[in-house]
Amino acid sequence: MQLLSALDAVILDAETATQPLSVLAVLVTEPSDEPIGFRGVRRRIRERFSLVPPMRRRLQRLPMGYPAWVDEPDVRIDHHLHHAVLDGPGDERQFGALVGGIAGQPLPHDRPLWEATYVEGLAGGPEAVVAKIHHCAVDGVAGIGALAAFFDLEPDPTPMELPPWEPEPPPSASALGRASFTGTWRWAVDARRGMEELVRAGRTVLGTARSDADAAVPYGGPRVSINGALTPRRVAAFATVPLDDVKRVRRPLAVTVNDVVLAVCAGVLRDHLRRRDGVPDRPLVAAIPAAEQPLGDDGSGNHIAAMFCALPVHVADPRDRVLAVQRSATTAKEQHRQLGEGLLGRLAGVAPPGLLWAGVRAAALGRVGDRLPPLANVVISNVRGPEFPLYVAGAKLGHLYPLGPLLEGVGLNITVASYRDEIAFGFLACPDLVDDVAGLAAAVPPALAELLDAAEVV
User: What is the pLDDT of residues 113-130, one digit of tens each?
Assistant: First the structure.
């Protein structure tokens, strides 16, 4: 039995019908004469799920304190695996609607918190698997890492010898009582430390905001059409660009790959807002999760920081836009250094276990997202994926699209991952706030193209 961390417990309690908190990976194979098929996917998951601890554990609620993870001795794969067939040939909008529907459904809590959907009927003949796991079990980096268990490095590998897994017996009543006491005591310690960190972090953030014009702060962005109270509906869209093109922008402008990615997102959102409610006269605020994965971790739980970066949608010149992103990102990284690693986990300790859910649900029912400033205008995360091809049951993985959850008041999440020689953008949106998420995805290549033109004249 393993108690959830304060941060994982907060993520669990923050889930509502309008704010499902799962992370997804959309895996699309290259077309093949020998498809994997539903049975092949089922067989691979059955063979290897025990290699991923979050896939073999379920939640155990306790009378007090943080919940715990316990081994599930009878993981029924068929309760987690689904089969979807698009009306053929399924186009990108059909696929995005299907994936959005999967993302919008909270996972049941009476079993391990994951599921996978095999999808056939895509135009051109590829197969797809939509893998989904609760955010309280893994963060984005750990989620991508967990996928490695199901892939091979060559089409016909030597059969893998899997280590035996023996589930721990169910905890006794006395063990549950001791864990409840331990969790309550740990929360008391976490709450005291969290209050101290809250005061320190507030002073640091406000001090940076006063002294640095490039700083972005929570709740500091303008209200735009992509912000408001969430509904349960979700829709997804996807785009890819060559990694070499991103590097062609990075080198002459002396910026990072992540700076270019953020500048592309700024260009995409500038175009979207121009066609909707008009471009604001100041930057949007982007919340950017950053990995803090400790060495030796088993790949479960959340080890992330939350940085805030100004997204200069109001800047017309693409070169000036990417340089403005660089300045704000540099400020955000320096602020993160001052605050120290593990801050988000320490702040999470302020929330009493099991009580946060009441406030979150009341906020959702009261549609406070329509009344209060948003924490951020958009969530953008960038995960580094494998630089080499992956295979499953002989089929080559063609594209890897990540998707992160929406937060109340923030109707758009853009999650980016590199794989082989491309960078993939996954857009997840609430269509009641973002009415053309497919248009956002379609605007990615042009947004990169204008940055390429700007870089060539340096």
Answer: 999 999 999 998 899 999
Residue 131 tokens read as 């893998």
Look at residue 166 and tell me if it is in a domain: yes
Contact 107, 134 (CB under 8 A): yes
d(CA 57, CA 299): 13
Report the distance separating Cα 95 and Cα 83, nearest Å: 13
Domains in the chain: how many in total? Answer: 2
CA distance 48 to 46: 6
Query: What residues are paired with 235 via a beta bridge?
Result: 429
| Catalytic member of 80, 109, 134, 135 | 135
pLDDT in tens, 171-229: 999 998 999 888 888 888 888 888 888 888 888 877 877 766 677 888 999 999 999 99
CA 208 to chain centre: 27
Pair of tokens at residue 30: 């290259």
Q: In terms of C-beta density within 10 A (0-12 exposed, 13-18 middle, 19 or more buried), how is residue 388 classed? A: exposed
The CATH number that applies at residue 209 is 3.30.559
Q: 143-168: per-residue pLDDT in tens?
A: 888 888 999 999 888 887 888 888 99
Q: Is 135 considered catalytic here?
A: yes
Residues 6 or more apart whose CB falls under 8 angstroms from that of 337 comprise none
Same domain membership, residue 427 and residue 303: yes
232, 433 Cβ separation under 8 angstroms: no
256 burial class (0-12, 13-18, 19+ CB within 10 angstroms)?
middle
Residue 322's domain comprises 204-379+421-456
41, 118 in Cβ contact below 8 A? Answer: yes
Residue 80 three-state SS: coil
Is 391 a residue whose pLDDT tops 70? yes
pLDDT tens column, 58-97: 999 998 888 999 999 999 999 999 999 998 778 999 999 9
At residue 296 the predicted structure's pLDDT band, cuts being 50, 70 and 90, is: very low
Does residue 294 carry a pLDDT above 60? Answer: no
Whether 71 is covered by a domain: the verdict is yes
